[in-house]
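Submission checklist for the structure archive. All mandatory fields must be present; incomplete records are returned to the submitter.

[x] Identifier: Mab-21-like HhH/H2TH-like domain-containing protein
[x] Organism: Desmophyllum pertusum
[x] Residue count: 453
[x] Sequence attached
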Amino acid sequence: MAAVDHLSGHSIISLNEALQNHLDGGGFQVMDDLSNQIFPSVFSALKNCLYKPLRKHPLYREVEFIWTGSTAEGVNIPNFERGGDGKPHLEFEMDILCVFRDIKIGRSADSPAILMKQEDTSQGYFVVFLNDQEYRKRWAQFSIAPSDPKRKGEMYLNPLLIVEDLYKQIEHIFGQIPLLRERFQLEFNPPAVTLTMSLDFQKITINCDMVVALELPSVCLPKEYPSWIKVHGQPSWLSDESFGKVQQEHLHLVGKCSPKGQPKVEWRLSFSVIELFLMQEIALQCPTAITCYRVLKQVRFWHLKCPDILHSYHLKMLFYQACHRSPLTSWTDDNFAANLLGLLDDLFHCLATQSLPSYFIPGCNLIKGVHSDFLLTLLQKLSQVRKDPIKNITNLKDKLLSSIEHGVQRHPPQESLFCSGTAPAPPTPSLNGLFLLFSGRGMERLPEQNNLS
């Protein structure tokens, strides 16, 4: 007798067939093709334009850009919004860590910068104490001292000042490159400088968040933060070689304060580089699991966006935990429906118990403090999805394809703007310079930058 999903009454086989049909016709391929054309080119263009002039500044000599987040992981789901004309507008988001690698953080008394956990800061948030006199002189313009006279002599790194300065530096660079000034809009958006580019001919907006970050060796974490590797052991999807590599990856601190914290001194622990590594390994070992995760993200986007409590990061933590519990052999096409329903049920359990732990810091509840009424609303919406998954999940295909058709496929010749393939169609004259910029050509004609101040 065929297995039945008791909540919806559908047979698992029928659910699986409906989901496979949902993914037929390319699944996420159209969106992935577009992403592969856009994101690597945008990242290369930003490095080409910003690295050299930024590194002339004495405080930016070792700055490094690291592309992270869902677009780097290959699991992005673009946001669809409808404009005044009623047509869908596609919005992509890129996360780029702007790492100040020459700020060396440690825990010992002789470290030039010391990671500290204050009593009144939430779990996963820290302050960076400037311990070395040379560091205090060098980073004085990015630091803050307590107003309490009893704490005279203390100095802490201020993330807001760094973001503000990064904004000014990028604004100065863009002011000297007309193509960038015309195509990008800058926004001071702590902990990031957001660069927004609109492709009007494609109805596409790309938001690049340049997130100020500091490098943190994992051994520098306080004792109350045991390594995620010690907590979980070796993930089943990592080979011994990959497991060795991921242990060498650094953590990062980003200038984000806790909900009721101190924005001028707090830094949030970030595992984004490790997350990228883990997601890429899952994709290599079990692409079906990645597809399942992306459908889960679609469900959130179409059904669970309001109230604005649940985010993709929450789903990522659920997904890692599910991958850790389940053997890779269980993530197959035949088990697709069962695995997706399992993820939805995991989410239901987290909302019902008001506890969604971080995969990397299990003691950190990511939905702590969220009002119970908001969680109840999400529970009710999720319950409706689970009662009829065929209706509420598989019909996402029509919404997705309709949006792509209106937003992208009506202008196929222009896709060559980001394409590095052979014999691209010539770009329109008004975008010719941007094409050269994104393809890595024409950089020799950009004006030489003065040393930034």
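[x] Structure attached
Curator remark: The longest strand covers residues 88-100. The radius of gyration is 23 Å.
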